[in-house]
């Protein structure tokens, strides 16, 4: 069953600027979620290949103090597997290689027990306890609420970074190769409690930095790393509302990392903060959606090589999709309806191995939902015949890699030489079809290239148009009098390779 995508009224808001909405319709198709019951409330999800079979599996933190593995069967279905005991109130889970054996391991932030559990992976896909790492607080209990796996010391070994809700600090658990050691946070006490954490090299100095949002500050903060498990300085970018969720990625393909934060107050929405040189940031631009926006992830949903935004909010069953124009600006928000009203977490990965990012949700009905991305991809365009004469019709054909959705797939057409061939501006591949055709008219002699574009992915083909046959002189003895009638015979028409009629005057 395919999803229902519907538009909401959306505006763009910068600190002192309101811009008009973009009216282009998003051409993204998501299937209704494949739901798997978990038996209890889940708090967070991470995606990764946990048994090295080439398929993406899930690790889910449960409110019961356990992590459960959901195995990808590779046939469109999933199996809820073994539960592993971790700490109290596990609030965040991450997947990465932590123990040096190249198998994926699992790290879990246990908010209630002030520690991080590291589960060691194996060739069989089973896990064992590697270490329980205490996360000390500067003044209060740490209550680590979020974590990320990254090499913060640039020694080739992945470390663990935690955002500590109770102590309002950031900690780095340094990987010694055999165990993890918590460093004293050099960020000091934060004004608010950390809500979310992201890691990346924001100032391009070769050292990984940490970005956070907090519950009391209308800003996003970036702490610049020192390659020793600490931080040297920070920068804040003021937003229009208090922030919650956070995602990190290069949204405009300029090689600088950008931030997307959610507004979890009544106004809701997401704010895009584009990174600039030297670890600076542009002013935030707000994209509105429902109130109480909680979670946000980045994923290329439409095959165009640009990261799009997916957010979830409390009190509505919808996911909000913001499609990237390719330059870090986004089209109007489109809502994808699901069956569950509250999402406790989001993740994105290619769950069905078709090359396209899918969406994983943690739902309040004690289940996980996997939404396969069914968005078609333009694969070719062809013009037939490739050479024709003025006045003839030309057939254009485009091919998609999968059937068009119920509303069809709208292809945009352009031509380098419109005087040569008359090309429609758009046409739609019908619902359920992988091939669509359109008709053009050859108008004048010359060469033209026709390009079809779908979701910023494009293909082209070229056609040559020749003049119609012109009257010509043909030397021959038409009347069999033994004299060559050279200049007086004019072909009036030729059809199917033969003479239809001629006009001539016998030679003297």
What does this structure look like?
Helix content is 0%, strand content 49%. The strands form 10 sheets. It has a 6-stranded antiparallel sheet with strand order 3-2-24-23-22-21, with no helix packed on it. A 5-stranded antiparallel sheet has the order 1-28-27-26-25, with no helix packed on it. The protein has 2 domains: 34-371, YVTN repeat-like/Quinoprotein amine dehydrogenase (Methylamine Dehydrogenase, Chain H); 378-466, Immunoglobulins (Immunoglobulin-like, Sandwich). It is an all-beta fold and 508 residues long.
Name of the CATH class of the largest domain: Mainly Beta
Q: Sketch the major β-sheet.
A: 6 strands, antiparallel
CATH superfamily of the largest domain: YVTN repeat-like/Quinoprotein amine dehydrogenase
Order the strands across the largest sheet as they lie in space.
3-2-24-23-22-21
- Sum up the overall morphology in one term: elongated
Q: Could you report the average pLDDT, rounded to the nearest whole number?
A: 86
Low-confidence stretches: 1-25, 487-502
Secondary-structure arrangement, i.e. CATH architecture of the largest domain: 7 Propeller
């Amino acid at each position: 069953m395919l999803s229902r995508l519907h538009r909401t009224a959306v505006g763009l808001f910068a600190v002192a600027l309101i811009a008009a909405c973009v009216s282009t319709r998003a051409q993204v198709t998501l299937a209704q979620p494949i739901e798997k019951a978990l038996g209890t409330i889940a708090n967070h999800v991470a995606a990764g290949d946990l048994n090295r079979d080439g398929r993406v599996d899930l690790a889910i933190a449960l409110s019961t103090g356990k992590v459960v593995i959901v195995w990808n069967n590779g046939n469109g279905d999933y199996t809820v597997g073994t539960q592993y005991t971790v700490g109290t109130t596990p609030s965040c889970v991450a997947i990465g290689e932590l123990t040096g054996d190249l198998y994926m391991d699992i790290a879990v932030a246990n908010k209630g027990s002030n520690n991080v559990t590291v589960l060691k992976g194996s060739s069989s896909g089973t896990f064992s306890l590697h270490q329980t790492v205490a996360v000390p607080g500067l003044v209060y209990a740490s209550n680590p609420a979020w974590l990320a796996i990254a090499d913060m010391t640039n020694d080739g070994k992945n470390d663990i970074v935690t955002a500590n809700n109770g102590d309002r600090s950031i900690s780095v658990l340094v990987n010694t190769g055999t165990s993890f050691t918590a460093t004293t946070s050099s960020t000091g006490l934060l004004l608010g409690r950390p809500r979310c954490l992201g890691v990346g090299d924001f100032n391009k100095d070769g050292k990984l930095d940490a970005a956070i949002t907090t519950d009391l500050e209308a800003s996003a903060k970036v702490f610049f790393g020192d390659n020793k498990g600490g931080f040297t300085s920070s920068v804040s970018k003021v937003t229009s509302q208090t922030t919650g969720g956070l995602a990190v990625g290069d949204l405009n393909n300029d090689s600088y990392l950008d931030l997307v934060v959610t507004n979890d107050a009544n106004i809701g929405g997401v704010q895009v903060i584009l990174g600039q040189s030297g670890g600076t940031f542009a002013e935030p631009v707000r994209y509105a959606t429902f109130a109480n926006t909680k979670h946000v992830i980045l994923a290329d949903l439409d095959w165009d090589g640009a990261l799009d935004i997916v957010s979830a909010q409390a009190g509505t069953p919808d996911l909000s999709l913001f499609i990237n124009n390719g330059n870090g600006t986004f089209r109007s928000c489109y809502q994808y309806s699901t069956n569950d009203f509250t999402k406790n977490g989001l993740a994105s990965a290619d769950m069905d191995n078709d090359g396209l990012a899918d969406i994983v949700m943690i739902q309040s009905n004690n289940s996980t939902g996997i939404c396969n991305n069914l968005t078609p991809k333009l694969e070719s365009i062809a013009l037939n015949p490739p050479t024709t004469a003025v006045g003839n019709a030309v057939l254009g054909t485009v091919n998609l890699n999968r059937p068009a959705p119920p509303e069809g797939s709208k292809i945009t057409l352009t031509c380098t030489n419109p005087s040569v061939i008359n090309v429609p501006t758009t046409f739609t591949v019908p619902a359920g079809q992988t091939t669509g055709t359109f008709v053009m008219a050859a108008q004048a002699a010359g060469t033209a290239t026709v390009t079809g574009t779908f979701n910023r992915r494009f293909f082209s083909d070229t056609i040559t148009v020749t003049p119609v046959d012109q009257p010509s002189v043909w030397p021959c003895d038409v009347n069999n009098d033994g004299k060559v009638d050279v200049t007086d015979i004019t072909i009036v028409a030729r059809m199917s390779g033969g003479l239809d009629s001629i006009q001539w005057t016998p030679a003297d």
